[in-house]
Design a protein that fits this description.
- The chain is α+β, with helices and mostly antiparallel strands and 446 residues long.
- It has three domains: 5-138, Beta Polymerase, domain 2 (2-Layer Sandwich), CATH 3.30.460; 243-392; 403-445, no CATH class.
- Helices cover 51% and strands 9% of the residues.
- It has helices spanning 5-16, 26-33, 50-58, 109-112, 138-144, 152-155, 160-172, 178-189, 198-209, 214-223, 229-232, 249-263, 270-279, 284-287, 297-305, 314-326, 329-335, 340-350, 356-368, 375-392, 403-408, 416-429, 434-445, and strands spanning 20-24, 41-46, 63-65, 72-75, 81-84, 87-91, 99-103, 124-126, 131-133, 146-147, 175-176.
- The strands form three sheets. The protein has a seven-stranded mixed sheet.
- A hairpin with a 7-residue loop joins strand 6 (87-91) and strand 7 (99-103).
- The radius of gyration is 28 Å and the shape is elongated.
- The N and C termini lie far apart (78 Å).
């Protein structure tokens, strides 16, 4: 393994003091998978007490500790390395963090790996002997591209592991071993996931969405019936096959997010963009007719989005809500040969919330998530958009009239002022000069 030189010096010192050094968890797994993603290196130190390890690390820099309960330490001048003593964990409550932790520097490796969730995460790298220790068959599971739990009895103690499986299989494009799948299903049926905080759920969903194939994670959650209502409702919402040959809205959404995963790096807000693609059609179950039409599903989607509690950032919520509302507008505009004024009004509606670049991207992903798309339709869309951008830009024009100008021209500073400002801006988009706008407003509100 590639290791920091200071880390190697510390490891050698630990060995000299009679300790043993094992690198565990994701960093070992990712070496096997040849995954170059950045992550912390988790170091487990055996045959040393908490105090002995702390004193040894203190020789090399400032030590930050996370309490004796977990016996985790970090060096300020060795970023990305976590030092810990081997421990066992015992569930004592229903919440994710309700564990009793037992530190044991002499814990046998066979018992130490029992607290790991998956076999591929239970691999250990013996620093002294420079070899992988595989006590659970993790190497074989990686070769098979499958995830499998280490110990069914300890696995069910942490319901977050169900969502961790979803993000792992999406990130590494793996399958779930059948017994592990059944275990996850049983945990969902017993309501264990209800004890997870929305922050924890949000974090795992973000990892799924930022993976190369997010649909794999959500298909797994669908199979074990762990989807929230606003996604599970999409499964039984059917669409007109002449518009959506791929079938139901959930299938469409999965195609959209996989296409979006390929283009998210081109957007201004990749994570919020992926959330928008996942949620863009959540209004369809409310408005879809018997023949498969879904009128005003964008507006319905904005209302449903108000019930999506796991997204808490106001800025992110504004972005996603705007994308849900306007995800169809550009395609409809191109198909109907929309006028310049419609495009300019759209720029104003998304101004400060979503970039035109991101709106174009979600429009394309929505179009491509339909099983089959005629090339000429796609080309026509870009011809239309490129013309608008070349002549009108991608930013809403700066207003010619502001509140100060209105007050200087005799208007009162009251609740009506904002409405008048909006009207002034729309007259500006229609091509009127500042002088003509003021004349028109004075005449109307004299």
């Amino acid at each position: 393994m590639e290791l920091n030189q200071l880390a190697r010096t510390i490891f050698d010192d630990i060995l000299a003091q009679g300790g043993r050094v094992y690198i565990v968890g994701g960093s070992v797994r990712d070496v096997i998978l040849k995954n170059s993603g950045e992550h912390d290196v988790d170091v487990e130190v055996y045959h040393m007490t908490y105090e002995q390890l702390h004193d040894l690390l203190a020789k090399y820099g400032v030590v930050n500790t996370f309490g004796k309960m977990f016996a985790i330490m970090q060096l300020e001048n060795l970023k990305g390395y976590d030092f810990a003593l081997p421990r066992q964990e015992k569930k004592v409550g229903e919440k994710h963090q309700d564990f009793e932790v037992i530190i044991n520097p002499e814990l046998p490796l066979e018992k130490a790996v029992k607290r790991r969730d998956l076999t591929m995460n239970a691999l250990m790298y013996d620093y002294q002997n420079e070899e992988i220790i595989d006590l659970c068959g993790g190497l074989d599971d990686i070769k098979k591209h499958q995830v499998r739990c280490v110990d069914p009895q300890s696995f069910v103690e942490d319901p977050l592991r169900v969502l961790r499986i979803a993000q792992f299989i999406a990130r590494f494009e793996m399958t779930v071993e059948e017994k592990t799948l059944d275990l996850c299903y049983q945990m969902v049926q017993q309501g264990m996931l209800k004890h997870l905080s929305i922050e924890r759920i949000y974090g795992e969903y973000c990892k799924i969405l930022m993976s190369p194939r997010p649909s794999i994670g959500f298909e797994f959650l669908k199979r074990i019936k762990a989807l929230p209502f606003y996604l599970s409702d999409l499964i039984t919402t059917h669409q007109r096959l002449d518009y959506h040959p791929e079938g139901d809205v959930f299938t469409h959404t999965m195609l959209v997010i996989d296409v979006a995963a390929l283009t998210k790096h081109k957007t201004d807000a990749p994570l919020s963009f992926m959330w928008s693609c996942l949620l863009h059609d959540i209004g369809k179950p409310l408005v879809t007719t018997a023949d498969g039409h879904a009128p005003q599903h964008n507006e319905a989607g904005v209302k449903v989005f108000q019930k999506v509690k796991m997204i808490q950032s106001k800025k992110q919520r504004q972005y996603i809500s705007t994308m849900i509302m306007y995800h169809m507008h550009l395609m409809n505009m191109a198909r109907n040969h929309g006028k310049d004024l419609s495009y300019l009004r759209l720029l104003k509606k998304i101004d400060g919330k979503v970039s035109m670049n991101d709106l174009i991207c979600i429009s394309c992903c929505d179009k491509l998530g339909r099983g089959k798309v005629a090339q000429e339709q796609y080309d026509a869309f870009f011809t239309f958009i490129e013309d608008k951008i070349a002549r009108l830009g991608m930013q809403a024009p700066q207003p010619l009239i502001n509140g100060y100008i209105l007050i200087q021209n005799g208007f009162q500073q009251n609740k009506q002022l904002k409405m008048i400002l909006d009207e002034a801006y729309d007259l500006q988009l229609q091509g009127l000069s500042q002088e003509k706008i003021l004349r028109s407003l004075k005449k109307k509100y004299e």
